[in-house]
Specification:
alpha+beta; 4-stranded mixed β-sheet; 2 domains; two-stranded antiparallel sheet; globular; about 35% helix
């Protein structure tokens, strides 16, 4: 999803009525325009079928191992990927994992297993895209889509599941968002950028997804790239602008943040100046290889 010509940017909005306890969030024109370009959640009915009685548990051990081997905490607190140091063995692990996921009968899984399946598949595909293009400064510099004005890999067909070719946008905006209707999805899918919520150091599982989603929300909101309290006012991730509808509309954003914010942020949210801003950093979530 490419919404800006620069990798790191801030847009001013007026969150005044919300910060003062009022019912609505008023957006300044630039932020409002950016939100217009964000993909909406549009259900693809093909992927609604599931089996509530299914006891099948999808094996994500290979993806789990890949994450443990190749994720490192950056100095800025962001979980980075050591793209430049990923071994051929790890690349093979990722390739085999994606091959296995492509053969998974996902329509016959329970909803819990499907949720973990789609989150892990999205993240693994994104890492593969970055690896195939590495070195690259930003995922938006990877041109795989065929549209004249499109940048990035989000509309490229990257994998076939149950005989259906899928793009990253299909998985996020036509499957995950409209089926589960859970704002925490935005803390789970990773766009290989510093501004994005972290890749987790463990694969999502059907049984553990709810707990992992809650923790992902707390982690992101606790980090300045999610919510930053500054002398000049509140700065929010642009995710809360682009996908405000998923958080209950403009009026639902701050109540959602309150639910997961650490005490230090909660203590000052009600005292913020009336101006607020959105910010996002599209630079790659890379980390330097460890020295041996």
């Amino acid at each position: 999803m490419d919404l800006s010509p620069t990798r790191h940017w801030t847009r001013r909005s007026t969150l005044g009525t919300l910060l003062a306890g009022g019912p609505t969030m008023s957006l300044a024109a630039p932020a409002f325009i950016e939100a217009l370009f964000a993909p909406s959640a549009s259900l693809w009915p093909r992927w609604e079928p599931h089996d509530p009685a299914s006891t099948r548990i999808v094996d994500h051990a290979a993806w789990d191992r890949f994450l443990r081997e190749n994720l490192r905490r950056r100095p800025d607190g962001v979980m980075g990927v050591a793209y430049a140091a990923i071994s051929q063995d790890s690349r093979g692990t990722l390739r085999r994992y994606l091959d296995t996921m492509a053969g998974e009968p996902v329509s016959r899984l329970s909803r819990h297993e499907q949720l973990a399946y789609w989150i892990n598949l999205y993240n693994a595909l994104t890492v593969r895209v970055m690896l195939d293009a590495w070195p690259v400064a930003s995922i938006r510099d990877i041109s795989l889509s065929s549209g004249l004005f499109e940048t990035g890999p989000w509309n490229a067909k990257l994998i076939a599941v149950e005989g259906q070719d899928l793009t990253l946008n299909d998985i996020e905006h036509r499957i995950l968002r409209p089926i589960w209707r859970d704002p925490r999805i935005h803390y789970a899918v990773n766009c290989a950028s510093i501004g994005c919520p972290d890749l987790r150091q463990a694969a999502f599982t059907g049984a553990g997804a709810a707990v992992m989603l809650d923790q992902a929300a707390r982690d992101y909101i606790s980090h300045p790239r999610g919510v930053a309290v500054t002398p000049d006012g509140l700065i929010l991730s642009s995710i809360y602008n682009w996908f405000a509808e998923d958080f209950g509309g403009e009026a639902g954003v701050l109540p959602h943040i309150h639910r997961y914010a650490p005490p230090a942020v909660l203590a000052v949210l009600g005292q913020m100046p009336r101006g607020a801003a959105y910010r996002y950093d599209w630079a790659a979530n890379a980390v330097a290889p460890e020295r041996r």
